[in-house]
Amino acid sequence: MSLTTVVQWMSEQRQLGQAIALVLDSEDERETRQQLLRSCDYERYCGVYHQTPVSELADAGPFIFIIEPREYAVLDTLLAEPQRHWGWLASLPQQQLPALTRHWRERIITGTRPNQALYRFHDNRVLARALAFMPEDARPGYLGPVTSVCYWAQSRWDVTHNPAPGEHPVPDQPAWLNVPAPPLLAIDILHTNIYRYLWAERSDEMLTLSQHRAPDEWLAEQLTQARHWNWNTPEQLHFLVLHRLETLERPLIKNWSPRDHETPQAHFERLLSEVQFWAGETPL
User: How far is Cα 167 from Cα 99, in angstroms, rounded to an integer?
Assistant: First the structure.
């Protein structure tokens, strides 16, 4: 589908009396965000991370704007470059921005401590893959008050409708969290989630690290090492990243390498036991 798809979709939704919302990746589209903030009334935008446990990341988090005709020039610029992965468009009933914001605030944090992560709902690649894999009856719990979405999916514009728009509770087992991600996208999402978590929860250690290394590059090295060792579980990644961050100046483990014929799980458990020993928690 071409850009004509987007124009037709917007026209149809407006004829139905729907508002058009732009879900924007604020971190990578700051100039666009500032343009819209200058144009939009307070009632027509919201920073999703505000008033949430990750409010420290609000400035870099996603924003939702209700777009009026006077903002179409800004929107045209985005639509001309979908490969920037700036976000996606949604239609929803008038005056439903608070409901939509509340909907995503209830879904942005996944997992339980210490293995929590941010769900990047504002990334069109994440949205497109979720909608491609989940059954239609799971869409209402995912899209909430949204009537229809229009988004860039790999190499074309696509549209998906919500069969039952409204306010829905978060399912016990959200279908969108069981969607397989392409390897490169999964790595990128994992890196982003852990990086933001570290700045939110371990800012002192990250500031210390930044005096010697670029934190982003350091984290990429840790995740590359984890893949090399086939450490893929949340517990293994959590242990590797946090322990290395906490012991930057005085490392407890001198040799992280696996032993001959040692399985990834045995390798992990051996190093975990070593750390617990030096912490006085268990005998070695």
Answer: 7
